[in-house]
Structure formats: C-alpha cells, structure tokens
Amino acid sequence: METKVRLASNEEQALREVKNLQAEGYNLDEIYVLTHDSDRTEGVAEMTNTNEIGVSEEGFMNAVANLFRSKGDELRAKIESLGLSESEANTYEKELDKGKILVIAYTDRDGDNYNHNKGPLDEETTLPPTGIYMSGRDNQNSNLF
After folding, report:
1. I want to staple 133 with a disulfide (CB 3.0 to 4.6 A). Which of 23, 103, 127, 144 is the partner?
2. Torsion of CA 39, 44, 46, 50, to 10 degrees
3. What's the pLDDT tens digit per position in 43-86?
4. 3-state secondary structure the chain
5. What is the pTM assigned to this prediction?
C-alpha cells in the first residue's frame, strides 16, 4: 500500500499534481482531493475527475462519527483513513486551514482492504450475504437466515 500527498495552492496546481501522480502510475480512481470546505472539495474533485474521501475509504463508523466531530477532527479522520499517521494528519489539516488543497494518491496494491500501518480500513462488522446459509447441504442449521 502506498500513499503520496501533494499540497496545492489552487485548483490549477491541483490539476497539475493529479497529472503528475498519473504519470507516476496512479489511476484517477486512486487519487483523492480534500479541502477545508466540502463544496470546494466537490468542485475540485469534479474538475480533476478524482475522488472525494467517502464512506468506502473511511468506513461506516468513521463516517457516522464525522457527523458529530468538529471540522478539524473530521478532516484529520479522513486523512488518516488513507493511510497517513495522526501526526501527518495534524500537519496537513493545518495546511487545509490555510486554504490549501490536498491531493492524495492512495492505493491498496495488495487488494486486502487493510491498512497495514493502522489496522482494518473498515471498522464495521461485515455480515455474509443473505441466503448464504440456505443451501441445506449437510447443514443442520439450514433454516438460518
């Protein structure tokens, strides 16, 4: 898993950073943008054809917790969800306070959806799909749903 962070002063520079990360081998679906303002983040993501940090990156529990956090705590949680340390998140959140744009390249190259530095990315419990226990093949509990 690799995470690279670039700071941009404006949207034009953010677009250049996205192109630089693409040149380094990252796909657009592996590149995220973040600003202090959610409307600006949405606009920059749309302009650069990149992603906002959402539930699939943060995990359901963090996304819900962000509803009750201060803006700074929310931004730090989002930054940490892409594999950065608490101290890095603090540093970058201060840059967001100054109006900067974070361009973050994050990929789970081994495909296990596990942040090897911080633990599982998604803290919620995953249940098996409905009907998985309904096969009835030599299963005494075949009536379980």
Report:
1. 144
2. -120
3. 999 999 999 998 888 788 888 887 777 888 999 999 999 989 99
4. CEEEEEEECCHHHHHHHHHHHHHCCCCHHHEEEECCCHHHHHHHHHHHCCECCCHHHHCHHHHHHHCCCCHHHHHHHHHHCCCCCHHHHHHHHHHHHCCCEEEEEEECCCCCCEECCCEECCCCCCCCCCCCCCCCCCCCCCCCC
5. 0.71
Compute the residue count for the chain.
145
Phi–psi pair at 51, nearest 5 degrees: -115, 155
Largest pairwise CA distance in the chain: 63
